[in-house]
Amino acid sequence: MFEKLMGDTGRAIRTYAGDKEFLAAAASLAANVTWADGEVEEKEIKKSKQVISANPIIKASYQPFEVEKAINEALDRGETRSGRMQNQRFIEAMQARDLKDREDVFLIGVDVADVGDIGDDEKKVLMKGAELLGVDGVALMG
Fold first, then answer.
1. 24: which residues sit within 8 A by CB, 6+ positions away?
2. Which of 24, 56, 85, 102 would disulfide-bridge 133, Cβ 3.0–4.6 Å?
3. Model's pTM, two decimal places?
Protein backbone atom coordinates (compact mmCIF):
# COMPACT_ATOMS: atom_id res chain seq x y z
CA MET A 1 0.00 0.00 0.00
CA PHE A 2 2.75 2.44 1.00
CA GLU A 3 4.79 1.60 -2.14
CA LYS A 4 1.79 2.25 -4.38
CA LEU A 5 1.10 5.56 -2.64
CA MET A 6 4.74 6.62 -3.04
CA GLY A 7 4.74 5.55 -6.69
CA ASP A 8 1.57 7.53 -7.38
CA THR A 9 2.95 10.54 -5.53
CA GLY A 10 6.22 10.38 -7.46
CA ARG A 11 4.35 10.15 -10.75
CA ALA A 12 2.21 13.18 -9.82
CA ILE A 13 5.29 15.21 -8.92
CA ARG A 14 7.04 14.26 -12.18
CA THR A 15 3.92 15.21 -14.14
CA TYR A 16 3.75 18.61 -12.46
CA ALA A 17 7.48 19.31 -12.67
CA GLY A 18 8.06 17.88 -16.14
CA ASP A 19 9.43 14.39 -16.48
CA LYS A 20 12.63 15.01 -18.44
CA GLU A 21 13.86 11.43 -17.99
CA PHE A 22 10.66 9.99 -19.49
CA LEU A 23 10.66 12.46 -22.39
CA ALA A 24 14.34 11.80 -23.17
CA ALA A 25 13.85 8.02 -23.08
CA ALA A 26 10.70 8.08 -25.24
CA ALA A 27 12.28 10.43 -27.79
CA SER A 28 15.48 8.37 -27.83
CA LEU A 29 13.74 5.04 -28.46
CA ALA A 30 11.51 6.63 -31.10
CA ALA A 31 14.61 8.09 -32.80
CA ASN A 32 16.55 4.83 -32.73
CA VAL A 33 13.55 3.01 -34.20
CA THR A 34 13.20 5.70 -36.85
CA TRP A 35 16.87 5.32 -37.80
CA ALA A 36 16.79 1.49 -37.65
CA ASP A 37 16.54 1.00 -41.42
CA GLY A 38 18.91 3.87 -42.19
CA GLU A 39 16.15 6.17 -43.44
CA VAL A 40 14.17 8.81 -41.60
CA GLU A 41 10.64 9.08 -42.91
CA GLU A 42 8.43 12.07 -42.21
CA LYS A 43 5.58 9.69 -41.27
CA GLU A 44 7.74 8.22 -38.49
CA ILE A 45 8.63 11.67 -37.15
CA LYS A 46 4.97 12.67 -37.21
CA LYS A 47 4.01 9.46 -35.38
CA SER A 48 6.75 10.10 -32.78
CA LYS A 49 5.33 13.53 -32.04
CA GLN A 50 1.80 12.17 -31.91
CA VAL A 51 2.36 9.24 -29.54
CA ILE A 52 4.81 11.02 -27.23
CA SER A 53 2.57 14.09 -26.97
CA ALA A 54 -0.46 11.90 -26.21
CA ASN A 55 1.19 10.36 -23.13
CA PRO A 56 -0.51 11.81 -20.01
CA ILE A 57 2.80 12.58 -18.27
CA ILE A 58 4.10 14.49 -21.29
CA LYS A 59 0.78 16.12 -22.15
CA ALA A 60 0.48 17.63 -18.66
CA SER A 61 4.09 18.80 -18.52
CA TYR A 62 5.26 19.97 -21.93
CA GLN A 63 4.27 22.25 -24.76
CA PRO A 64 4.31 20.74 -28.27
CA PHE A 65 7.46 22.66 -29.21
CA GLU A 66 9.31 21.11 -26.25
CA VAL A 67 8.33 17.60 -27.36
CA GLU A 68 9.37 18.40 -30.91
CA LYS A 69 12.72 19.73 -29.68
CA ALA A 70 13.40 16.54 -27.69
CA ILE A 71 12.53 14.38 -30.70
CA ASN A 72 14.70 16.44 -33.04
CA GLU A 73 17.65 16.26 -30.64
CA ALA A 74 17.26 12.47 -30.35
CA LEU A 75 16.98 12.14 -34.15
CA ASP A 76 20.13 14.24 -34.57
CA ARG A 77 21.96 11.95 -32.12
CA GLY A 78 20.57 8.90 -33.92
CA GLU A 79 22.38 9.77 -37.12
CA THR A 80 25.65 8.39 -35.72
CA ARG A 81 26.65 5.25 -33.83
CA SER A 82 27.86 7.26 -30.86
CA GLY A 83 24.61 9.21 -30.86
CA ARG A 84 22.51 6.04 -30.95
CA MET A 85 24.54 4.78 -27.99
CA GLN A 86 23.80 8.02 -26.15
CA ASN A 87 20.11 7.48 -26.94
CA GLN A 88 20.42 3.99 -25.46
CA ARG A 89 21.79 5.52 -22.26
CA PHE A 90 18.73 7.77 -22.00
CA ILE A 91 16.53 4.68 -22.43
CA GLU A 92 18.53 2.68 -19.89
CA ALA A 93 18.15 5.48 -17.33
CA MET A 94 14.50 4.42 -17.00
CA GLN A 95 15.42 1.06 -15.42
CA ALA A 96 14.85 2.34 -11.89
CA ARG A 97 11.35 3.52 -12.75
CA ASP A 98 8.17 1.55 -12.21
CA LEU A 99 7.13 -1.02 -14.79
CA LYS A 100 4.23 1.05 -16.16
CA ASP A 101 6.51 3.94 -17.15
CA ARG A 102 9.03 1.58 -18.76
CA GLU A 103 6.30 -0.22 -20.69
CA ASP A 104 4.91 3.13 -21.86
CA VAL A 105 8.30 4.10 -23.28
CA PHE A 106 8.60 0.75 -25.05
CA LEU A 107 5.09 0.99 -26.52
CA ILE A 108 5.89 4.45 -27.87
CA GLY A 109 8.75 2.83 -29.77
CA VAL A 110 6.43 0.09 -31.06
CA ASP A 111 3.90 2.65 -32.25
CA VAL A 112 6.61 4.49 -34.18
CA ALA A 113 7.92 1.25 -35.67
CA ASP A 114 4.38 0.31 -36.68
CA VAL A 115 4.29 3.01 -39.37
CA GLY A 116 4.09 0.59 -42.28
CA ASP A 117 5.35 -2.85 -41.32
CA ILE A 118 7.73 -3.48 -38.45
CA GLY A 119 10.85 -4.67 -40.23
CA ASP A 120 13.66 -6.84 -38.90
CA ASP A 121 15.91 -3.82 -38.26
CA GLU A 122 13.18 -2.13 -36.25
CA LYS A 123 12.45 -5.33 -34.30
CA LYS A 124 16.13 -5.55 -33.39
CA VAL A 125 16.12 -1.98 -32.07
CA LEU A 126 12.88 -2.59 -30.18
CA MET A 127 14.23 -5.74 -28.54
CA LYS A 128 17.36 -3.83 -27.48
CA GLY A 129 15.06 -1.15 -26.07
CA ALA A 130 13.08 -3.80 -24.18
CA GLU A 131 16.32 -5.17 -22.74
CA LEU A 132 17.47 -1.70 -21.66
CA LEU A 133 14.09 -0.97 -20.10
CA GLY A 134 13.75 -4.38 -18.46
CA VAL A 135 10.38 -5.13 -20.07
CA ASP A 136 9.01 -8.13 -21.95
CA GLY A 137 9.13 -6.78 -25.49
CA VAL A 138 7.68 -9.90 -27.10
CA ALA A 139 4.63 -9.89 -24.85
CA LEU A 140 4.10 -6.14 -25.30
CA MET A 141 4.29 -6.44 -29.09
CA GLY A 142 1.86 -9.37 -29.11
1. 70, 74, 90, 93
2. 102
3. 0.88
